[in-house]
Write a structure and sequence with these properties.
single chain, 389 residues, alpha/beta, TIM Barrel, 6-stranded parallel β-sheet, two-stranded antiparallel ribbon, 16 helices, uroporphyrinogen decarboxylase activity, UROD/MetE-like_sf, Uroporphyrinogen_deCOase, Uroporphyrinogen decarboxylase (URO-D) domain-containing protein
Length: 389
C-alpha cells in the first residue's frame, strides 16, 4: 500500500509539473454522491463522521481512481447546529433531507453597503462582532454566551477535521494506497466578499456604485484568505489547496481585471512562493480570461475546468496550468458505455500530450443520480489503460 500510495502521489505531482509519468492520473469529485450510492442521505454524512468515512472508503474501493478529494464539500452539520446557522440547511420545511447542504443567501447580503468602511478598517473585528452574529443565531447574544458558543464551534470543527478528514486520509493511505487531493482550502477575496458578506445581488450593485470600496475590501480580506491557505500547511507540490472561483465568469473581463485580478494574482503568487500548489475550480466558461491565466506562475497551478472547448484550452493555457476535468457527466449518463469510453479516449488524445493533465469529470457529483456507476467505472478503467505515456 505504501508503494501504491507513493506511485499515485508521484503520478499526480508529475501531471502538475507537466512531466509525463507512467500514465494520466484519474480523479473524481464525489461529495454527497458517495453516500447516496450506499444508501446514506446528506444528514448521515454531515453529522456522523463514521458514515462519512464509510461513504468515501466505499468509493475508493469501487472507483479505483488515483486520488480523491477530502469530503470538505459535505460540510460539518454539527458546526451549523452549534451556531444555529441562518444560511446553511440540510432539511426542507417538511423535515426531508436535501441531496446536499443548501446555502440560502440573505436579502441584501449579511453586510450592509454602508458598512464597507468598517470591514475595510478591521475585517477580523467586523467578522467577529457583526458578520458572524448575523449568520449564526447563537452568536447574536451576550458576550459570555457568545464566547462559550465560539469555543464550542471551534472544538466541533477540530473534531470534524480530525474524524472526517484526517482519519479518513489515514485509512485511505494505509489500507488503499490512495492520497487525498487537497490538504486544505481557501477562497479568493472577492469570492469571500460575495459569499459571506454582500451576496451576489449586493456585489453586482457594488461594482457599479462602490468601486473603490470593493477594491479596498478585497485587499483587506486578502491577509485572512492567504493565511487560511498557507498557515500550518505542509509545503510541497502535492496535495494541493482547493480554491473555488465563484464570481469571475459573471464579470466582464474589464471588471475582472479591475476588481478580481489584483488579489487573485497576489494570492496565487504568494502560495507558489510558499511551495504550495493552488488548485482552482474554474466554474463556468473561462475562455474570455485565458490571457489572465497565462500570467500565472508556469506549471505551478492546477485548473479544474468546468466547461468550454478543452482542446482549445490545452492549446491556449495548457502550457501554463495543469488541466483537470473534461469528461461530461451528461456523456456518462446519456451515452452507451462504448460511446463514453471513446469520448474519454479522445480527451486523452487532446489533453495528455506533454503532460499537464488529470482526467476527471466536469462536475462535482452531489445528487443520487448524478453519475451512472457502471459507465463511470468503465471509463476510469479505460483511461488508466489508454492513458499510458
Amino acid at each position: 500500500m505504501r508503494k501504491l500510495y507513493n506511485e499515485r502521489c508521484e503520478r499526480v505531482a508529475n501531471a502538475i509539473k507537466h512531466t509525463p509519468g507512467d500514465r494520466v492520473p484519474v480523479s473524481a469529485m464525489i461529495e454527497t454522491w458517495a453516500g447516496h450510492t450506499i444508501g446514506q442521505n446528506v444528514v448521515d454524512q454531515a453529522y456522523d463522521y463514521s458514515k462519512l468515512r464509510e461513504a468515501n472508503i466505499a468509493m475508493a474501493r469501487e472507483l479505483g481512481v488515483d486520488v480523491l478529494p477530502p469530503p470538505l464539500g459535505v460540510r460539518c452539520g454539527n458546526l451549523y447546529t452549534a451556531g444555529a446557522s441562518n444560511e446553511f440547511f440540510f432539511f426542507d420545511k417538511e423535515g426531508k433531507s436535501y441531496n446536499s447542504v443548501q446555502h440560502t443567501e440573505a436579502p441584501g447580503g449579511v453586510m450592509r453597503a454602508e458598512e464597507y468602511p468598517e470591514l475595510i478598517a478591521d475585517p477580523y473585528k467586523f467578522i467577529l462582532e457583526k458578520q458572524l452574529p448575523r449568520r449564526y443565531r447563537e452568536l447574536d447574544t451576550t458576550p459570555e454566551h457568545k464566547a462559550m458558543v465560539l469555543a464550542q464551534c471551534a472544538m466541533t470543527y477540530q473534531t470534524y477535521m480530525a474524524e472526517a478528514v484526517a482519519k479518513l486520509g489515514g485509512i485511505l493511505a494505509e489500507e488503499y494506497g490512495m492520497p487525498l487531493l487537497f490538504k486544505g482550502s481557501t477562497e479568493m477575496p472577492m469570492d469571500c466578499l460575495m459569499d459571506y458578506f454582500r451576496g451576489f445581488k449586493g456585489i453586482s450593485m457594488d461594482i457599479k456604485r462602490r468601486k473603490e470600496e470593493v477594491i479596498a475590501a478585497c485587499e483587506a480580506l486578502y491577509p485572512l484568505m492567504i493565511k487560511r491557505a498557507i498557515h500550518g500547511v505542509e509545503a510541497g507540490i502535492f496535495p494541493t489547496i482547493f480554491i473555488p472561483l465563484h464570481i469571475p465568469t459573471y464579470l466582464r473581463p474589464k471588471d475582472f481585471e479591475k476588481f478580481y485580478w489584483p488579489t487573485f494574482k497576489k494570492m496565487i503568487d504568494t502560495m507558489v512562493e510558499n511551495d504550495i500548489t493552488p488548485h482552482l475550480f474554474m466554474e463556468g466558461n473561462w475562455e474570455p480570461y485565458y490571457d489572465f491565466i497565462n500570467q500565472l506562475p508556469k506549471r505551478k497551478v492546477v485548473g479544474l475546468i468546468e466547461s468550454g472547448d478543452f482542446k482549445k484550452a490545452k492549446k491556449a493555457i495548457g502550457d501554463t496550468i495543469c488541466i483537470m476535468g473534461g469528461m461530461p457527466t451528461d456523456v456518462i449518463n446519456n451515452s452507451s458505455k462504448e460511446e463514453a469510453i471513446n469520448y474519454a479516449k479522445q480527451l486523452v488524445d487532446d489533453l495528455a500530450p506533454g503532460g499537464g493533465y488529470i482526467f476527471a469529470l466536469d462536475k462535482v457529483l452531489i445528487a443520487p443520480n448524478d453519475a451512472n456507476m457502471d459507465t463511470l467505472k468503465a471509463v476510469f478503467e479505460a483511461v488508466k489503460e489508454y492513458g499510458k505515456y
